[in-house]
């Protein structure tokens, strides 16, 4: 039976400990950009989730729809088929699970199967029923900044001031959640790195991360293995981006810096490096 990494204080539903949390990524998809297909079989995904918990993941994010740029959407039934057995098994181990879905129907079944949080990259824009579900079930909810589905989201990466505009658009989401009767004390926000954002936008958001404090909600940062890190670390001779599976050191560096800037949680494919990184950030900032 898995035991939590540290004493949990559920402050109004969102899990909280006295450092930045680490959310391990379990993509049960054939085509996610960073690990597509590796954990597509339930047994492999469950085994991987247990490995991430052993590496120090505070919670696991189980998703059945790839959101990489250009991705085609699976049918709701297929998305459900992918995630439910994995959520059931890992929740039975005692793990804290968020379901990474934009669909209220999938989220409801995931909650019934033992998930304790909904991670919605669309912030409720992809499914008009999502906010009502979150309000009714009083589920801790991650609301990410989003400007449309992966199939064409990079066409919407136009900003005058990306930080000001992402903050404003997340503010609109907060109002929509408030109107839907959602208990905002159970809501975390996420700037959506790589979603309708290019590399410069991502770096500007990270550089100015503290400005998001104006929204007065915990922040989740999902930088792990993303293309902007690959481009930063491109081969100097060939210009070839660093492959996704070799971006974990850079991902951990972002985790440390995001934690130092006050992030509530970081989302990581390789948990161990980021688990160490957030502990370094905590001790560094401790008087
Ligand atoms: N809250 C949140 N959820 C996410 N889900 C998927 C991906 C895409 O990355 P993946 O395909 O490696 O999971 N990124 C995020 C993110 O940045 N934030």
List the helices and strands and how they pair.
Layout (H helix, E strand, L loop, with lengths): L8 E3 L2 E3 L4 E7 L14 H13 L4 E5 L12 H17 L4 E4 L3 H9 L4 E4 L9 H8 L3 E4 L17 H18 L7 E4 L8 H9 L12 E2 L5 H6 L15 H13 L4 E4 L2 H14 L3
Parallel strand pairs: 3-4, 3-10, 4-5, 5-6, 6-7, 7-8, 9-10
Antiparallel strand pairs: 1-2
Helix pairs in contact: 1-2, 2-3, 8-9
The structure holds pterin-6-yl-methyl-monophosphate.
Structural class comes to alpha/beta
CATH architecture: Alpha-Beta Barrel
Number of strands: 10
Q: Give the overall shape.
A: globular
| Secondary-structure element pattern, one letter each | EEEHEHEHEHEHEHEHHEH
Give helix % range: 25-40%
Beta strand %:
5-15%
Instruction: Enumerate how many helices there are, as a single number.
Output: 9
CATH topology tier name: TIM Barrel
Low-pLDDT stretches? none
CATH C-level name? Alpha Beta
Task: Kindly give the count of domains.
Answer: 1
Query: CATH homologous superfamily - what is it?
Result: Dihydropteroate synthase-like
Distinct small-molecule ligands in the complex: pterin-6-yl-methyl-monophosphate
Instruction: Characterize the biggest β-sheet.
Output: 8 strands, parallel
> How do the strands of the widest beta sheet line up side by side?
8-7-6-5-4-3-10-9
Pfam families: Pterin_bind (PF00809)
Pathway: Cofactor biosynthesis; tetrahydrofolate biosynthesis; 7,8-dihydrofolate from 2-amino-4-hydroxy-6-hydroxymethyl-7,8-dihydropteridine diphosphate and 4-aminobenzoate: step 1/2
Domain Pterin-binding: 20-279
InterPro entries: DHP_synth-like, DHP_synth_dom, Dihydropteroate_synth-like_sf, Pterin-binding_dom
């Amino acid at each position: 039976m898995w035991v939590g990494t540290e004493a949990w204080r559920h402050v109004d539903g969102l899990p909280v400990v006295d450092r930045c949390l680490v959310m391990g990524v379990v993509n049960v998809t054939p085509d996610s950009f960073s690990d597509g297909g590796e954990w597509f079989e339930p047994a492999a995904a469950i085994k991987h989730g247990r490995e991430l918990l052993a590496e120090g993941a505070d919670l696991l994010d189980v998703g059945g729809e790839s959101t990489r740029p250009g991705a085609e959407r699976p049918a709701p039934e297929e998305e459900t088929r992918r995630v439910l057995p994995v959520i059931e098994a890992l929740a039975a181990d005692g793990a804290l699970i968020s379901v990474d879905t934009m669909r209220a129907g999938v989220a409801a079944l995931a909650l019934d199967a033992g998930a304790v949080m909904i991670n919605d990259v669309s912030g409720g824009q992809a499914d008009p029923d999502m906010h009502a579900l979150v309000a009714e079930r009083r589920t801790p909810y991650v609301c990410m900044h989003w400007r449309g589905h992966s199939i064409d989201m990079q066409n919407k990466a136009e900003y005058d001031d990306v930080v000001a505009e992402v903050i404003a658009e997340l503010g609109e989401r907060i109002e929509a959640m408030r109107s839907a009767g959602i208990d905002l004390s159970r809501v975390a926000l996420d700037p959506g790195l790589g979603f309708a954002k290019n590399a410069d936008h991502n770096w500007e958001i990270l550089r100015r991360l503290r400005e998001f404090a104006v929204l007065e909600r915990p922040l989740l940062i999902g930088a792990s293995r993303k293309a902007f890190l690959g481009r930063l670390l491109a081969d100097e001779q060939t210009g070839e981006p660093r492959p996704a599976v070799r971006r974990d050191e850079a991902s951990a560096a972002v985790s440390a810096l995001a934690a130092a800037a006050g992030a509530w949680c970081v989302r990581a494919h390789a948990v161990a490096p980021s688990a160490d990184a957030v502990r370094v950030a905590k001790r560094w900032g401790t008087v």
